[in-house]
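Hey all, quick one. A colleague (J.T.) asked me to put the zinc ion job into the tracker so the inputs and the structure tokens live in one place instead of scattered across chat threads. No bug as far as I know, just bookkeeping. Sequence used:
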Amino acid sequence: MINVFRTPFFLPRLYPTLLWRHSPDQPDIFLTFDDGPIPAVTEFVLDTLQSFGAQATFFCIGDNVRKHPGVFQRIVTAGHRVGNHTFHHVKGWQTPDVQYLEEVRQCDAEMAKHGVSTELFRPPYGRIKRSQIRALGSRKIVMWDVLTNDYDRSLGEQDCLAGTVSATRSGSIVVFHDSLKAERNLRYVLPRYLEYLTAGGYQFKTL
Ligand SMILES: [Zn+2]
């Protein structure tokens, strides 16, 4: 099987200022969940993380924070970290810079209603122009080392799990999605993934 789960080595070299992998010398894994918060799916993630004593980082869509404030509050109260994922999940390559920054600002403003501020940012689809990277200034832009492909409905649960486990290494930043599209794979993969890697001596931490 071609490893479509691990980020190709050249991308971090092309974009060295972005964060792709974190503290590779420690047996730590940095789980990230994109596109929530939404009821049921995000709540399943929170319950599952709690049962393993795992911490994670949630890259939230501002409009979902607005629609589901109680679910967002649960993420924060549980001690997880949150990051900005724009207000409407916009594609960087197709969005003028001024509008892109406004999307980021709106997402910040929605989180601020909960007393939350974050320096973490993940571009939707992983697509961002160099001019947008510059415009975001001192923000920490977080990419990933492992993509679970959980949103791919043509991917079977067992293949999703096997590919994700085999791509994971110390310091991996791993992308899951707390979205309806990913729900089937997520519900199968997440508890098994946590169980396997916890038994392997890994710890799950926030960025
Ligand atoms: Zn996303």
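Adding what we noticed when we looked at it: Helices lie at 10-14, 41-52, 62-67, 69-77, 97-112, 130-135, 157-167, 183-199. The beta strands are 28-34, 56-60, 81-84, 120-121, 140-141, 146-147, 173-177, 203-204.
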